[in-house]
């Protein structure tokens, strides 16, 4: 929480002191890593003008590339750095997370994940036993997900210039021809489906950092979703888009879909699957579960007529047991996500503005 | 130099204090990032036992993978994190380096580089103008090399938990069928060719860090080698292996080839292309140019009968102007590199043992 406060102070300091080439800040803020509005700002105002091209500009979770000589599929490519702290947490560790996060970014694009590359930035002094546990954990996660770690790299930075270990994984997979999922494909009338309870990963991390204890332990939901997505895509041809709601949570994922598709999204609060322990932890810490990261969940946008069948199919999979329809795509309030509360009112669910939970993944 | 000293002290401390599950150290040392013997130790004793498989175990600069549905080529995959400091240096910056390093790891495997993924770990407080310069520099380098940045990610770590910017690039390319370069393919009688002057990158970085000034400025040689490698492979079918001698320098690259191929390597000191300014800087700092990183050079092992023609072809390319035969592969002293000095003697050129130049790339 103190990091978040720091970011806010820094924003106001910068607002007062600099000529604002970048709407109020001229340095990197913690919030630029939030997956929320500041992240989007950095991408749209700095990275895309500098590095943009037809593939990158689509802003999907994975690039979809035509590979010369390959007729049957497109190549899917995604990359993610993992800087989570602590590096070991209830339900997982940075290694498992680094495998799952990248596998999932491929899976939600309809890709079959095949290969992973893993690059390690180690801080001088990291116990080798920790590194070994992490590497073994990655191997186990990769084996479960059916992917192979084919390339690696290790760099070491001096003490105080890193934080134990950062891992960057890059995933490569294949998207069979005929599959064309896209965050730009949601249409009014579609339903919004979530694969299970939300906020588990973020609150597991926060409970460790804040020293919270509950009757039921909070555990990260970190898991590879490619088995579930294969089942979904085999059993339903009306899926328009999928996203894994990691940093920035369900709200950011849905705001991105609303913006990319030019539609509104209407969520129903009482339909959101939420563990009691996560709900309690969110209340204690003053956090909204819609903004809390998940690492083994996905959001799917599906044609209305197929939504119930899709949810039934998902519930046959261990990672989809708590799947539910949580809302609908609407033609109104384009680009905006609105939630109907249990009490009957409605509120706008904007993208995360600053940084709620730094270094959550 | 102080970092290197720290690493040495740490080694001796650890030697005295721990039960040595890992031959004298139980924590990550700066030398584990050197590209030398400690790096190799970490890979062979920790990463391969944990993550090893048929592809990874080959320890090439790039993975070569069979992609289902692709008949004409194998997929080449490589990943590298870049942690160089300073992030801007004579002749380049961390962004250019991150593109070139990964393009080159593909190129020396005979791959045509196609796609790059780039993941950024930013330290809170990094000036956005620096980030923009770096991103623009990456784009220029990618365009020159003919590759497209198709995927990206940004994470932010709190002040003091990173060092301005770390970039991990992953490269994907295609190796046409029929090309089978491998560090395990060197045979006695083959010649060792280098594409140009050695040590330029490392000494450019060191001259900035140490505040050295010379009549001729020291500049990094950072460059994308895929144009040169294409020319080489088109003009010569006797190339057995190529490597780009980055961290650990020419000595590490040749030691790896000697070990993987089970051969000896004999270098001729007076044949090594070396700029006067690099030579002078090495003398001042007590460094051996054979251990200093290059970022726009390659070593090729080629059948003896084709060596002169290959060098002639290379010299027609701007990045191969100073190409030279610098030694031979021999059946003696297997696994060992030996250099014949100008004075007529011979000395063993072992792998870098500790860390000579931390955070050089």
Structure at a glance:
Chain A has 361 residues and is of the alpha+beta class. Chain A has helices at residues 2-17, 37-51, 94-107, 128-145, 200-210, 226-235, 249-261, 276-285, 304-314, and strands spanning 63-65, 73-82, 88-89, 92-93, 112-123, 148-157, 165-176, 191-194, 239-243, 264-268, 299-302, 324-330, 337-340, 346-348.
Can you list the strand order of the major beta sheet of chain A? 9-11-8-12-10-13-14
What sequence of helices (H) and strands (E) makes up the elements of chain A? HHEEEEHEHEEEHHEHEHEHEEE
Largest interface: A-B, 88 and 87 residues
Rg of chain A, nearest Å = 20 Å
* Multimer state: homodimer
Just name the CATH architecture of the largest domain in chain A: Alpha-Beta Complex
Low-confidence stretches of chain A: 1-21
Question: How is the CATH topology of the largest domain in chain A named?
Answer: Phosphoribosyl-aminoimidazole Synthetase, Chain A, domain 2
Separation of termini of chain A? 16 Å
What do these coordinates show?
Two copies of one chain form a homodimer. With 361 residues, chain A is of the alpha+beta class. Chain A folds into two domains: 67-176, 2-Layer Sandwich (60s Ribosomal Protein L30, Chain: A); 181-348, Alpha-Beta Complex (Phosphoribosyl-aminoimidazole Synthetase, Chain A, domain 2). Chain A has helices at 2-17, 37-51, 94-107, 128-145, 200-210, 226-235, 249-261, 276-285, 304-314; strands at residues 63-65, 73-82, 88-89, 92-93, 112-123, 148-157, 165-176, 191-194, 239-243, 264-268, 299-302, 324-330, 337-340, 346-348. The interface between A and B is large, with 88 and 87 residues.
């Amino acid at each position: 929480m103190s990091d978040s406060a720091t970011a806010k102070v820094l924003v106001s300091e910068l607002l007062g002191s600099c000529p604002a080439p970048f709407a109020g800040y001229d340095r990197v803020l913690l919030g630029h890593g939030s997956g929320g509005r500041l992240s989007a700002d950095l991408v749209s105002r700095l990275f895309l003008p500098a590095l943009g091209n037809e593939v990158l500009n689509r802003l999907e979770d994975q690039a979809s590339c035509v590979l010369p000589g390959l007729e049957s599929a497109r190549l899917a490519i995604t990359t993610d750095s993992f800087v989570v702290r602590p590096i070991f947490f209830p339900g997982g560790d940075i290694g498992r997370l680094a495998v799952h996060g990248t596998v999932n970014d491929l899976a939600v694009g309809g890709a079959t994940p095949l290969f992973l590359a893993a690059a390690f930035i180690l801080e001088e002094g990291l116990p080798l036993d920790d590194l070994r546990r992490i590497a073994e954990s990655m191997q186990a996660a990769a084996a479960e997900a059916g992917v192979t770690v084919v390339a690696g790299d290790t760099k070491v930075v001096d003490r105080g210039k890193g934080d134990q270990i950062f891992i960057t994984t890059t995933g490569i997979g294949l998207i069979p021809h005929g599959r064309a999922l896209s965050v730009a494909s949601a249409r009014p009338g579609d339903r919004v489906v979530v694969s299970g309870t939300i906020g588990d990963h973020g609150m597991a991390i926060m409970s460790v950092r804040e020293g919270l204890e509950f009757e039921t332990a909070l555990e990260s939901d970190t898991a590879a979703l490619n088995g579930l997505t294969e089942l979904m895509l085999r059993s339903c041809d009306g899926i328009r888009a999928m996203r894994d709601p990691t940093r920035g949570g369900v709200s950011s994922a849905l705001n991105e879909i609303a913006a990319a598709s030019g539609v509104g999204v209407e969520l129903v609060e009482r339909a959101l699957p939420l563990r009691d322990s996560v709900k309690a932890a969110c209340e204690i810490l003053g956090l909204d579960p819609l903004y809390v990261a998940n690492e083994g969940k996905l959001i799917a946008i599906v044609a209305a007529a197929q939504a119930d069948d899709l949810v039934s199919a998902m519930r046959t999979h261990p990672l989809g047991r708590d799947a539910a329809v949580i809302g609908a795509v609407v033609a109104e309030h384009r680009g905006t996500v609105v939630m109907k509360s249990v009490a009957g009112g409605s509120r706008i669910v904007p993208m995360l503005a600053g940084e709620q939970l730094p270094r959550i993944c």
